[in-house]
Amino acid sequence: MSDVMKVKQARHVAVWDPVVRYGHWLLVAAFAVAYLSSEGGSRGPDPLHVWAGYLVGALVVARLVWGLIGPRRARFTDFVCGPVTAIRYLADLLRGRARRYLGHSPAGGVMVVLLLLSLAATVVTGLMAYGEQGKGPLADSGGAVVAAAYADADEGRRGGTENRRNGGEDSVLGELHSTLGNITLALVILHLLGVGLASLMHRENLVLAMIDGRKRADG
Q1: Quick one: residue 128, left, alpha or beta (phi over 0 = left, psi -120 to 50 = alpha)?
Q2: Which pTM does this prediction carry?
Q3: Is it the case that residue 166 has pLDDT exceeding 80?
Q4: Which of 53, 117, 178, 204 ranks highest by number of CB atoms within 10 Å?
Q5: Phi, psi (5° rounding) for residue 161?
Q6: How far is CA 17 from CA 162, 182, 185, in A?
Q7: Is 27 helix (H, G, I), strand (E, B) or coil?
Q8: Residue 96 and residue 201 in contact, taking contact as beta carbons nearer than 8 Å
Q9: What are the structural domain ranges in the chain?
Q10: What's the mean pLDDT in 147-158?
Q11: C-alpha pair distances (Å), 40 with each of 36, 44, 97, 122
């Protein structure tokens, strides 16, 4: 190994462990697939959307657990802070004099929490909406049988009212699920803008750091 390579490696330290890095990019891919396949047909949501949603949920749970038991930089105690600290950091970042953090910055920590909460809420509402159709782990099998019976029977006053009521509940859950998905996308865009701004200010590639797990050492 050349002296130049040795010096370069000495100036960089490992920050992000494989669980954080691989989980991050898997979550990016899973959310992208789920969002792009969100338009369902007459028979319900696309199976690709459903399975991508399951993967998003599993990754969110894994990240929550890892934030409690993982290495230092992965733990919530390392980067979760109050709103005042995050706002102060953002103000300094816009002024071009924000402090550099080896792990997540205060604003980055807030964004991690917001994204996890938004993704979790999106998955839960999706499972609830899917369950209203008699599918998925939250399926109400009894409700599905009743709904099928009403659909096969001659339309009557009671049956028509019940079907309209169920359809309204489904549409509310579906709209909430869709809205939360759009909120998550907006947070992702803000996250990308923040990463770009911080990368320019601190003159380091934060995207590459999330790939190889290494960042420039302090000092």
Answers
A1: alpha
A2: 0.81
A3: no
A4: 53
A5: -65, -45
A6: 52, 29, 25
A7: helix
A8: yes
A9: 3-216
A10: 43
A11: 11, 5, 47, 16
